[in-house]
Design goal:
about 15% helix, four-stranded mixed sheet, 6 helices, about 325 residues, Pseudouridine synthase, about 30% strand, nine-stranded mixed sheet, globular, alpha+beta, 17 strands, 3 domains, Archaeosine Trna-guanine Transglycosylase, Chain: A, domain 4
């Protein structure tokens, strides 16, 4: 098997994804433009959605699951009066309603849609049903019957009402919440129908629009692929560990760090910089650090501190031996 082409680049680029391309399209374009060996994204945005799309290179791809699980913030516009097959403006009209709820009526239904709820995903989604994507089945005229799924919606705020037919919301939510479904459900709860017409993600974990580049601000050309220097990147990257800033830090010595990186375990009671005793039996994930440098993530399992996902390997420490005790 041939070795994957490209150079080793580590870090996060936060893209302000435009309307039109898929998230995968943007990853592929930036991976090519950076000449990177490995890249991925931290949470899909539909082609008709824009905003914060975290793109990971190299070591940063190891932290993608923590960005996927992170809290996200969106702004969307609900078009009232038409439901559509895709729950957004791309689909065909399914039903219409002449009812237009007042602002007070809209605000009154929002508490019931907030918190830990059960949400029915859009039939045009990437969920698998009997091994097939739901959107493929829907396009064939056989939309699947998708059961409700648990979802966590922290807050929904009505922020603007441009006219009777539209309402603008800001939402903060956890992993796997479909904004198209939420827009549909707000309309239904108000006794009408609707679909999402504009969707923009403004935050994803620690990343927000202040970190984001527009694609036309990034100079992408073939010359960047042949230069093996970090300062030749089209734009600077955020460190891979930036994705982990919300995870509590645990200071370790170099010797303890080597043990974790090399797959061994530590007695949490014997750490040089002890963690709080009341947390010894918890399933909390810790950010193992030597000084200001993040080695990776660790967790107490079966009474021992063990690596969960490391950003560094043995090369970080050089070729020095470690005495295990």
């Amino acid at each position: 098997m041939s070795k994957r082409r490209g150079r080793d680049i580590d870090g996060w680029l936060i893209l302000d994804k435009p309307l039109g391309p898929t998230s995968t399209d943007m990853v592929n374009r930036l991976r090519w433009g950076f000449g990177a060996r490995k890249a991925g994204h931290g949470g899909t945005l539909d082609p008709l959605a824009s905003g914060v799309l975290p793109i990971a290179f190299g070591k940063a791809t190891r932290t993608i699951p923590y960005i996927m699980d992170a809290t996200k913030r969106y702004q969307f516009t609900l078009d009232i009066g038409e439901s559509r097959t895709t729950d957004d403006r791309e689909g065909e009209v399914l039903a219409t309603s002449s009812h237009r709820p007042t602002d007070d009526a809209i605000r009154a239904v929002l508490p019931a849609l907030t918190g830990n709820v059960m949400q029915v995903p859009p039939v045009f989604s990437a969920l698998r049903v009997q091994g097939r994507r739901a959107y493929d089945m829907a396009r064939e005229g056989r939309p699947p019957d998708l059961p409700p799924r648990p979802a966590r919606i922290d807050s929904i705020t009505l922020v603007d009402r441009p006219d009777a037919n539209t309402a603008v919301f800001e939402v903060q939510s956890g992993k796997g919440v479909y904004m198209r479904s939420l827009a549909r459900d707000i309309a239904l709860a108000c006794g009408t129908v609707g679909h999402i017409s504009v969707l923009r993600r403004t935050r994803c974990g620690p990343f927000d629009l202040s970190h984001a580049y527009k694609i036309d601000e990034i100079a992408l050309d073939k010359s960047t692929q042949t230069v093996d220097k970090a300062d030749a990147l089209p734009v600077p990257l955020l460190e891979a560990a930036t994705a982990l800033v919300d995870i509590p830090a645990l200071a370790v010595t170099e010797a303890e760090g080597k043990i974790l990186v090399w797959g061994q375990s530590l007695d949490p009671m014997m750490l040089t910089y002890p963690m709080p005793v009341q947390l010894h039996g918890s399933d909390l994930v810790w950010r193992a650090m030597i000084g200001e440098h993040v080695l990776g993530l660790c967790q107490i399992r079966d009474g021992r501190l063990r690596a969960v996902r490391m950003l560094e390997n043995h090369e970080f420490f050089g070729e020095h031996d470690v005495d295990y005790c």
